Amino acid sequence: MIRQARERSGLSLRELAVRAGTSHSALSAYERGHKIPTTATVERICHAAGFAVEVTLRRLSPQHIDPGVALEAVLDLAEEFPTRYSRDPPVPIFARSSTAQR
Hints:
It is built from five helices and no strands.
């Protein structure tokens, strides 16, 4: 979010750092995900870039799937695929219908 605000404002790292009252190295660390800023810091930096931060609270859908459960499902599905490549994989042969256009 910080990088997006900075880039959309056309400011360099150093320019935004001066406006936000922080160091360019801290901004760089935030943008690269090496440091996690507080919400107050994100608001201050985004405001210095000319943007407001809005937070919306919403319920997760009941279909929300835990990432671990999703990974298990993907791995189970992957086991269904053949483990060896075949030049002539088995495919169903469909009869041509008389109404099919050529």
